[in-house]
Target: Na(+)-translocating NADH-quinone reductase subunit B
Amino acid sequence: MDQQGNKPDLHADYYAPGHSVKGYLYSLLVANGRSNKGKVHVRDAIDVKRTMTIVGLCLLPAILFGMYNIGLQAQIAVGAGMVPPDLWQLIPFNVLFGELTAQTGFAGLFLYGFSLYAPIYLTALWVNLFWEVVFAKVRGQELQEGFFVTALLFSLILPVSTPLWIVALGITFGVVMAKEVFGGMGYNFLNPALAGLAFIYFAYPSQVTAVSQLIAVDGFSGATTLMQTAAGKISFAQYPWYEAFTDPNWWNAFLGFTVGAIGETSTLALLIGGGLLLLTRLADWRIVLSVLMGMIITATLFNVIGSAKNELFAMPWTWHLVTGGFAIAMMFMATDPVTTSYTRSGKVVYGLLIGFMSVLIRVVNPKMPEGIMLAILFANLWAPIFDYLVAQANIKRRRKRNGI
Model:
């Protein structure tokens, strides 16, 4: 008993951060042993654990469709004469369905994709968790649940054939160098998932940028829409933006039945999940709208300018929306509450910069047709500056109003 007659919490010290790995896991799965007690503390139903759970649920449509699309694209490639890979990850599929064929049904295609995606996500999850525990132990802090969503986002923007050792290296760089060295969750100014992708993108380009890594079969040599347009194989000349809504190829891209990274192909699934994120107010609509408007304005300007040598100049904004990783970046990466601007005006400028930079990199640099990754990382660096400029403008305006 203490002086107020309260019984001591026998578990508080044992499960407190910094005591043991078991304490970290208890804090992660159950509750923090040092939660505030008493009537003087303000309580809110939303915390980090609930926030990350909601974000994970919002990503679920893209995850489920991504796993099915992995199997579907592999089936299409097999029908064109490609050979399924001989991988240990496919043991569950091979045991239940044998070999992938044109007759493999929905359940088989889904299991094919699940068998390849699950090891990628689990590798990212456990490596991320390892570094979170290490840094939490060193700092004597509680374990934060942010690693759950970081691992999800990182795994969804990777090609399905990415080697697991590269997955481990990428998530390690993103978590350690872009997050933990700056103080951990809440202190990082770069998105860890995108920083990890940028690292392996430039360190191991043949393992990440090669289109053969996007399809889980041997010998695939196709190309994405962005790649084909950059190579001049697809022309958007005399193609108004509204014509996309009557184009079956655009609808395939919108629904997600195309080649791409694991969780970025279905714009519809990402908009559904992102819409739920906006309804829960975990994402700011100003950022999403600004990114979209920045992309539309920039793409339209390039359409007006035109180019006889670069077909990407003519690509309308409706196609920019459904190609590459634009949708997942707009809904889930750009809206990261830690790395974005905090002021309302800053968020608008931040989003416009991302939309502008993503199209600019796509169009002006045909060798790197996917620009949204670098656009967000670049905007992350400018986010604090935008907030500073907005704050200074407010101070100057108030001083002028008050005659100071």
Notes: Confidence is low (pLDDT under 50) at residues 7-18.
